[in-house]
Amino acid sequence: MSSAVDYFVQEKIWFDKPRYDDAERHFYERINSTSHPAQELGANTILQDIARARENIQKSLAGSAANGAGDQGELITRIKSLELENNSLNQGVLCILIASSLQGTSVQQQKTSPPVEDEDDDDDDMDLFGSDEEEDAEAERLKELRLKEYAEKKAKKPTLIAKSSILLDVKPWDDETDMAKLEECVRSVVADGLLWGQSKLVPVGYGIRKLQIQCVVEDDKVGTDLLEEEITKFEDFVQSVDVAAFNKI
């Protein structure tokens, strides 16, 4: 009985209990700060084994105190077995705590570390931006070139001039009027955009004939009012001027 008591005096399990309690507390703190279900499951299993080992030790001590004179050899064997099991469990707990600590540090570094920008990506972005500017400049140059070509082509293209064909009836005063002189006076009217054409004498009655003369005019430059005004200036020969026909060309 005394040798068994001496053996328990030298045993360190109960004297080192605060150290195991601290390790267990740190372990639970690490478990709460991380999200790793597999590690939590392993740690819970180890803690359950530790609790069973302690319960067995307490039962063994209680049985030894009650029986007093029990088999000391069997008790010592069980105590050694429990000691080995306890050491194995302690090592497992320490390994898990160390692994949890390392993993938590790695996760914290990943959270605090700024993302590294890829210099090659920046270079590619700059190149793409430069390409866009070059394409815009090229498109603008082509646009200006096409506008210039269109303006030149339009300038070379002849402008459509609106023209009219006019047939005038020029009446003399009487049958004694010199119709040749009258026609000469009419054709003496000159203006930009005026071109005289064929003429003929048409009988009116009582021996009187009128001059029927054709002309082509540019609408923007010569009108019927201008022609009538200029021809009637020859009042010695011309009585009146009428527009017999007016056609757009």
From TrEMBL:
One of its GO terms (molecular function) is translation elongation factor activity. Residues 128-154 form the Elongation factor 1 beta central acidic region eukaryote domain. It comes from the Eukaryota. Pfam families: EF-1_beta_acid (PF10587), EF1_GNE (PF00736). It comes from Oncorhynchus tshawytscha. InterPro entries: eEF-1beta-like_sf, EF-1_beta_acid_region_euk, EF1B_bsu/dsu, EF1B_bsu/dsu_GNE, Transl_elong_EF1B/ribsomal_bS6, Transl_elong_EF1B_B/D_CS. Keywords: Elongation factor, Protein biosynthesis. This is Elongation factor 1-delta. One of its GO terms (cellular component) is eukaryotic translation elongation factor 1 complex. Residues 106-136 are annotated as: Disordered. The gene is LOC112246644. Belongs to the EF-1-beta/EF-1-delta family. Transmembrane segments: none annotated. Residues 163-249 form the Translation elongation factor EF1B beta/delta subunit guanine nucleotide exchange domain. Residues 116-136 have a biased composition (Acidic residues).
